[in-house]
Amino acid sequence: MHKSTRIFRNFNIQSVLAGLAFQRSKTTQSLGPGARSSVQKFLFLPAGRYLTFLSAAMMTLASLSQCSLLGLEEEEDNSQELALLLVASSSSGCTYESESVTTTSSTGQFTLVDTAQTDCFNSTTGSTQSCSGSGQDGAYNSLTNTKQPSYSSNGNGTITDNNTGLTWTSSPDTNGDSTLNVSDKLTQLDAYNYCANLNYAGSDDWRLPTIKQLYSLMDFRGKDPSGYTGTSTSVLTPFLNDTYFSVGFGDQSAGERIIDGQYATTSVYKSKVFDTVTGMFGVNFVDGRIKGYPCLNSKTFYVLCVRGNTEYGKNNFRLTDSGATVTDDATGLVWQQSDGGTTRNFDDAISYCEGLSLAGQTDWRLPNIKELNSIVDYSRAPDTDSAPALNSIFTASSFSNEEGITDYGWYWSSTTHVSGGSNGTSNDGKNGAYQTFGRALGYYQNQLSDVHGAGGQRSNYKLDVSTTTGVSSINLGNGLFYYHGPQGDVLRHNNYVRCVRN
Q1: I want to staple 93 with a disulfide (CB 3.0 to 4.6 A). Which of 113, 116, 187, 267 is the partner?
Q2: 410 with 399: CB under 8 angstroms?
Q3: pLDDT digits (tens, 9 = 90+) for 429-477
Q4: CA angle at residue 102 from 269 to 110, to 5 degrees?
């Protein structure tokens, strides 16, 4: 065994992130596509000679780029080779390390944690109703392979998820002043290095989580405060278990909105958000969404670091039932290989799955939103792959979108995205949560663009989006559509359907 050093540097020449990564036996197999595609040199040196080369290489790079050291950590490694990677980056505050290894040969390492939603809702009125026979998320709380949230406090500022095997820092208080505000937020690049260099609670193997690892914490007992007219956060119910975790709300004293509770991940969008900017998929534990956020020096996020179970979030797909289904041995779920082929509103989507007979089985159902998110492939995007953000083992419908270009669908989940209303405490269930596998369109600054990225999780009215409070509409030559919100999220009450069973 020998000691090795992993160094991350931020170069300002348009720019380049020089990463030193030790590859044990997989060499380039574990590198992301962004890293592989942007490698300028890929050199393997014997362990005894790498320090001489490293010193010369860093001196040369420093003279060209005025680099600044962002992170240094020591780790044990028994590799005999050093892979020197020059990975494309920029001064925008993003690592530019998009995911590539999204599958695994492991089984049972991706235990899905339930949404914890127990209520069911009338899609028209939004009021609660009986869950019996509803087919909604709240009707399925005791299924095999899907576990209710379970955490243990370790008494040292860390929380262990008893289902996933992941251990988390309990608070995004990065500056340690016991107050959560804008000064705790970091750019995605700084968040990446903060976790990589963290020595906390007796451990130094912390990392910034992937989007699926962070989303495992999402709790749909939360209520979206987007329409909240108050200022106190004490009445709000976040989408993160605040018995165990400290929740970062937007810092109103610094001019932020109360819903500015976005958290950073390593999951960089392979395409561009707003069609022009490299972005990162982040989780908002205040309003209950996943969106792609621009990687800018001015854009900062709360940070939770994680350790353990590096396989969490990776799928292990195989075709089953003569190709009619896809089984994921990582989660234990069985999926329709092809989607329902047409779009439906929320209620009809539930009816379709509840009535489906496929591969000799009749216990199909509409997946909850965390199950549906589990099959997103964050290494793919429509603009770069001419395909949905979905493993190619699946078949997905395509269509001409509101912009008049070929796109891929948004898919309904059985999960209700509850609104807390103007008082923050209401229980309005008119909105359904959906997963985007195609572009997450918005009509922003008088143009349509992929504002949040294929892989975002958003919501809108389940039955008729034209009745959304404050909605706007426009026809750009490809049919009338509705939009709403700060980024003009396009609204669709008819989405695609892919059913699941345990």
Answers
A1: 187
A2: no
A3: 999 999 999 999 999 999 999 999 999 999 999 999 999 999 999 999 9
A4: 115
